[in-house]
Every structure is written in C-alpha cells, then in structure tokens.
Specification:
alpha/beta, 4-stranded mixed beta sheet, two-stranded parallel ribbon, 6 strands
Length: 222
C-alpha cells in the first residue's frame, strides 16, 4: 500500500515589527547613554556609606593619584577649547593647528603647559608614561603678581570656558543644560590626605569652595 504524502506548508513570519522595535531600542540607548572616557591615570576611590547623585555631565574632574599628582578632565570639548585659548596666552605657549586638534582629543591633562608642544609630538606609549610621571604643577608661579599656580589657572580657565560656551547657547538649547561646571575631586584611597587638602586649599584660594568628593558606595553591612 502506498504512503500518503502530506503537503507541508512553509511557515512565514513577518520580522518587520521586531526590526522596528530593535532599531528604536538601539536609538534610545545611543541617545541616553553616557560614554565613559578611557582615563590614562585611574584611581580606586575610598568607600563611603553616603550615596548622592553625581552630575552625569558638565563636570570638571580633578584626579589625585596615590603619589599626589594632579590631573584634570572635562566632558565638554568646547569648554576645553575655550580654556586652551586662555592657557596658551597665560603661559606664553604656541601650538600648531594640528597640535591643538591632538590636545582636544586628550582625555586627561597632566603635563606642565610649557611641555605640551614636545609632549604632543610623542607616541601614545610615551605620552602615557609622561602623564603618569608628571601632573599639573600646583606650585605658585613666581613670575605672576597673584602667585597663582598652573593648576589654579586651569580651573579658572575651565570654569570661564564653560560659562562662555553656555552664554553662547540660545534659549532653546539652554533647556536642560547645567549653567555651571561642577568640580568633582577623585582621589585614590591610598592618596595622602595632605595631597587632597592641598588641592582643596588651591581651590579655596581662587574662591572655589563648592566641590564634590567622589567615593564608592558601600552598604553598612558590607
């Protein structure tokens, strides 16, 4: 007796709705995500039981490594660009257009301003070594009447640079944008207290008394 062949129907599923949903989700995450910069000098902050929200943007990050070296970073390229113009004038340093472009791509600043022309011409590996071995000078500049340090000049230039950028925005763009640059101090858990105190004193000397000390959240039972 012959076998009866059962006709098989192909199953077809329309994937268009799923593709639309995936594209919408991807777009949402891309627009809402805050990308973390790959910092050259990283620190392990001390633990704390206090949990407070840290600004996601518009920050001036001051990093203090275990040896007390100070580095700066900001998430606003326009702020850094405005600050660079000020610092080149203040310190009498000249950079070519190509060097300025390379400077603005830096994730951390930790070299004396006078050394940047030479620093920007080195390989990435050499730059990493220099960043880890230097730090922004915190000694008073003797040639200046006000005796400000290069670190203080950078902080003021960054704050003014952000303010200048903010004032250039129209009313529509300003909605949801912070009108000030928040200062965040991030020190390693093994950084001497004297180094942290020195940075705080430097800030207070230029009337910057509002700042945030970053720590890692730790539950009380841990």
């Amino acid at each position: 007796m012959g076998k009866i062949k059962i006709k098989k129907n192909d199953v077809w599923i329309d994937m268009t709705p799923m593709s639309d949903v995936m594209v919408l989700l991807l777009t949402f995450f891309m627009l809402s995500a805050n990308f973390v910069k790959n910092e050259v000098v990283k620190v392990v902050t001390p633990s704390s039981e206090t949990m407070a929200k840290v600004p996601a943007s518009a920050t001036l990050d001051i990093t203090i490594d275990p040896e007390g070296r100070v580095l700066l970073a900001t998430d606003k390229t326009s702020t850094l660009e405005n600050a660079l113009k000020t610092m080149l004038t203040e310190r009498g340093v000249e950079l070519s257009a190509e060097q300025k472009k390379a400077f603005l791509a830096e994730t951390q600043l930790g070299i004396p301003m006078k050394n940047y022309p030479e620093y920007l011409g080195k390989t990435h590996e050499e730059q990493v070594k220099l960043l880890k071995a230097n730090g922004i000078p915190t000694d008073s500049i003797e040639a200046r009447e006000d005796k400000m340090s290069e670190f203080q000049l950078w902080v003021k230039a960054m704050k003014n640079g952000y303010k200048e950028w903010y004032n250039d925005l129209d009313d529509v763009d300003k909605s949801g944008v912070a009108n000030k640059l928040d200062i965040c101090i991030k020190a390693d858990k093994s950084t001497p207290y004297s180094a942290v105190k020195m940075v705080i004193n430097e800030l207070q000397d230029i009337n910057e008394s509002r700042y945030k000390l970053l720590t890692q959240y730790k539950k009380a039972d841990e």
